[in-house]
Amino acid sequence: MEKVISVSLGEIVLKGLNRKYFEDKLIKQIRKAINDLGYEKIYKEQGKIYIEADDGVFPQITHRLRKVFGLVYISPCIKVEKDMEKIGEAAVELIKNKLAESSYRTFKVETNRSDKSFPIKSPDISRAIGGVILRNFNELKVDVHNPDIYLYVDIKQNAYIYIDRIKGYGGLPLGTNGKGLLLLSGGIDSPVAGFMMAKRGVEISCVHYHSYPFTSERAEEKVKDLAHILSRYMGEIKMYSVNILNIQKAINKNCPENQMTILSRRFMMRIAERIALENDYNALITGENLGQVASQTIYGLNATNRSVSLPVFRPLIGFDKVDIIEIAKDIETYETSIQPYEDCCTVFLPKHPVTKPKVEDIEESEKALDIELLIEDAIENMKIYTIS
Amino acid sequence: MIYLDNCATTKPRKEVIDAMVEALTNDFGNPSSLHRLGLLTEKKVKEAREIVANFLKIDSKELFFTSGGTESNNIAVQSIARKFSKKGKHIITTSIEHPSILNVYKYLEGEGYSVTYLDVDQSGYIDLEMLTNAIKEDTILVSIIHVNNEIGSLQDIKGIKDIINKSVSKPILHVDGIQSFGKVDFSLKDLDVDTYSFSGHKIYGPKGVGGLYINKRLKLNPIVFGGNQESGLRSGTENVPGIIGLGEAVRIMSKNFEAESKHAFELKKYMADGILKKIDDVKINTSLDNTSSPYILSVTFRRTRGEVLLHYLEEKDIYVSTSSACSSRGTTKSHVLRAINMCDDDIEGTIRFCFSYEITKEDIDYTIEQLKLAVDDIRSIMGR
Q1: Domains held by chain A: number
Q2: pTM, 2 dp
Q3: How far is the alpha carbon of A211 from chain B, nearest alpha carbon, in Å?
Q4: How far is the CA of A82 from the CAs of A6, A348, B2, in angstroms?
């Protein structure tokens, strides 16, 4: 009995004529994710992707595949010829292993017959294999509504039998939806925002803003750590690190104190757009979340948004903080995000930030600044890192 | 580079590094081994022990090598507290101890010991009368930080010992000497302390090695068990290169002690004067006489942020330390500066300078020049 890993695809199957393009992209990502683990073969068979490898590395492969976007379920299965006796043997083997984990009482067999040339119909296969299981395991009963164990039988060119279905993140294969530039701070939200867009197939690069020496080098290091964690899902990440101290100083000196944050954010957006246009990124991505802080009111977002014309993706806009935290924990950025090093010095935080800024007022305040010179100066001194 | 963070750690002397490389290369034997190689390393460890014991003017049998200050403090406090717990469970310390004492006390508090934390005055000194009143019939241990690591205050150990001697319970006296070892002049035998801890990397020696003096009239039990190295008090194969490095550091230090302390003392006064002259609205937190360490100078630059100053200076290759870290979730503030009643704004603007034999007056001049630029810049931003 040969063991393989099956991967079921999510939305890709709806892609019609483009399906092959998405599948090939996905196989490329899978190959990249598990390359060093030594698999033997990756092949497609009637809607699913299969990986042949030594079953000793199955746990590692599964773990890595969970981080590949575009996969819905990952299952270690037994592959046999389309022969009822062999399918029965595989089912017994799987059930035996499952019962060694814990004591289960009920089961159900679910069959999916893609190969319609196979003479026995799905319900009959299920019934026959169920019978084999009942004969071999006295302690098990059938429960078709709420079983402890589902045993799946897929009839394709070969027959695949499996129990465990490990959930993947879904989404679309990386690189199938253009390139985006993520404004990555050291906080909880922005890494999650990057993850969400990557999950939709966007290739991610990051820009990070700091105000050294008003912030610590450790703050930049922390953001690099976050980018490193994200790179497990997105591959190599390019990170632009921009010092905006001079911009903050200029705002601090020439503009109303309560507009500090909004004005800084407009500069961040402009600089990001500049980097995006020069490097062919198609959109900006932020972790902004409606109402979370003073600068993220609907008025604040409007004022920030007006500074750029590229589309700005804000995948977290409607999330509650607890939900964002849950994802941050799941993708393992949370522990790093909550380290204390700040990327914005409290010196530059207004005591009473404006919550309903008017775009006209903000634009009026900016007249006191040499915007172009400040931006050019910041970009000229920017550092670029490649993180993987 | 102008390294003014010598209380955090020091740069090992070249001789120390050479001695350690030699030890790692050739003296790799285990002192417990019966063969010649073992004997050879055992002898080197013994030599280092003699050097340190001679410097402290103690018997080499009273000296135990450890992994450093934290371990020495832990062995002393935990072991003393356990040994005398039948006599009493009251232990005393100060509110300006290092975490390696404070957190052991907190742990013991959880184990049922009662603790008195002695307050200090605005300059960081305990009140001897308060200590007199604090010692009760069931007091078994008094632990005092000799030189405080943040403000440099040097406690009057002799006065403290006199009070202990006059008390009924005569508790054991442990002195945390991490910042006083090799930095201030004293004699363990004159002060008549019971235990004294020190560390190698504060005196241009290696990290990961230190020692504990235990007066021979006191027998302590180990807190870690194993192969009975260090007369059973501290099991674990000796850190031979570390011990040899420590020995070498102490050997040079004892030779240069007077000249180097005098140098540090002059730098400290020079720097304090310079800062007061060049920068306004500052406060010197460390006394400039012999009641504090010559190596430590704490200064508050009002209307600034210590951490921002620190990063400004680091850009100029000058390294200092602050007692608080900036965070939007509220600044974490030093318990020592709180204990001397410093207000929150002042704590945020406080910087510590710690000197070494390598620092020159020109270094200090340059540092003050850079400090002034940084302070002015920060104040122009914060002043709005």
Answers
A1: 2
A2: 0.86
A3: 10
A4: 17, 69, 77
Give residues 230 to 249 of A whose Cβ lies within 8 Å of B. 249
**pLDDT for A351:** 83
Residue A206 and residue A355 in one domain? yes
CA B202, CA B268: separation in Å to the nearest integer?
A: 18
Q: Which of B319, B326, B378 to mutate to test the interface with A (most CBs of A within 10 A)?
A: B326
B224–A contact, CB cutoff 8 A: no
ipTM computed for the complex: 0.82
| Residues A350 and A254 sit within 8 Å (Cβ to Cβ) | no
Both A119 and A48 in a single domain? Answer: yes
- Roughly how many angstroms between the first and final C-alpha of chain A, as a whole number? 38
Query: Hey, what are B377's tokens?
Result: 């810049």
pLDDT band at residue A342 using 50, 70 and 90 as cut-offs? confident
d(CA B367, CA B358): 14
What is the DSSP pairing of strand A149-155 with strand B90-94?
A: unpaired
B308 → closest Cβ in A214, A252, A253: A214
Q: Which of B7, B326, B343, B354 is catalytic?
A: B326
* Residue A214 and residue A355 share a domain: yes
**Element of type H or E holding A238:** strand A237-243
**Are the C-beta atoms of residues A333 and A192 closer than 8 Å to each other?**
yes
Hey, are the CB atoms on A217 and B307 less than 8 Å from each other?
Answer: no
The answer to whether B302 touches B273, Cβ cutoff 8 Å, is no
Domain range enclosing A353: 179-387
pLDDT in tens, A265-324: 999 999 999 999 999 999 999 999 998 888 899 999 999 999 999 999 999 999 999 999
Mutate to test the interface with A, among B303, B304, B305, B311 (most CBs of A within 10 A): B311
C-beta of residue A8 within 8 angstroms of C-beta of residue A167: no
Domain boundary among A143, A169, A195: A169
Instruction: Decide if B343 is catalytic.
Output: no
Domains of chain B: 2-7+257-382 (3.90.1150.10), 14-252 (3.40.640.10)
Instruction: Please tell me whether residues A270 and A380 are part of one structural domain.
Output: yes
The whole-angstrom separation of Cα A171 and Cα A375 is 36
- The 3-state DSSP composition of chain A as helix, strand, coil percent (nearest 5) reads 45, 20, 30
Strands (E), chain B: 2-3, 63-66, 90-94, 114-118, 139-145, 172-176, 195-199, 210-214, 282-284, 296-301, 318-319, 321-322, 324-325, 332-333, 350-354
Residue whose token pair is 């905006």 = A244
Does residue A357 share a domain with residue A329? yes
Q: Within the 278-307 window of chain B, which residues sit less than 8 Å (CB to CB) from chain A?
A: 305, 307
| Mutate: best of A221, A347, A349, A351, partner B, most B CBs <10 A | A347
A221/A119 same-domain check: no
Contact yes or no for A213 and B328 at CB 8 A: no
Task: Report whether A166 contacts A128 (CB < 8 A).
Answer: no
**DSSP element (H, E) containing A384:** strand A383-387
Give the domain CATH number at A260: 3.40.50.620
